[in-house]
Amino acid sequence: MRLLARVVLPLGLAVGVLTAATACGGGASPGVTAKPTPDATSTVPEPAAQPSTDAPATPPAALSCETLIPSDTVAALHKQEWAAMKRDFAFGPDALPGGIECLWSDPATASDRGLLYGWAPISSAEAKARQEQLIASGWTREDSDRGVYITADPRASLSKDEDGYGMTYLFGPGWVTVSDTKQGLVLIEPRG
Fold first, then answer.
1. What are the DSSP calls for the chain, one per residue?
2. What is the pLDDT of residues 43-63, one digit of tens each?
3. pLDDT for 112-150, tens place per residue?
């Protein structure tokens, strides 16, 4: 039974969160939160100018769930007895080489509560195609000085930050990040 709680239940949780993430949702966030940056300037359906190079960013050498977010956040999650389940960064079934997604949750409890953080290198052509695909599926685009935010329709989001944003991607020059809320994106700082 203990093996069931340690292996099968977290696997079921990951499948549930992946399904929810694919359907534009995320899990509820526990006490670890971040304040959003007020840099979103507009909601625009037209694509922003892409960087002049089409080369994806180089992933940090030691990219892992422990190095994707700040060490104090990792320590706080471990203190809550949460663990990370690592998987490939993917849009549906299509994985991005060199990317990582980490689902942080309590592995001893079957729940829809969890935090999702992800980072991947991406070419500008692939970024444009993925943005268009998400927008065609009802996601919202916001341009900012940080990059292009693509956010799930709030009516379909299971988890929202204090500003009402659910699962959100941030596309920058050569990279893309994802979190279960827009506020969660400010925690993604890959380090090597």
1. -HHIIIIIHHHHHHHHHHHHHHTT--PPP-S---PPPS-EEEE-SSPPPPPS--PPPPPPTT-SHHHHS-HHHHHHHHHTT-EEEEE--EETTEEPTT-EEEEEE-TTS--S--EEEEEEE--HHHHHHHHHHHHHTT-EEEEESS-EEEE--GGG-S---TTS--SEEEEETTEEEEESSTGGGGG-----
2. 444 444 444 457 788 877 778
3. 788 999 999 999 999 999 999 999 999 999 999 999 999
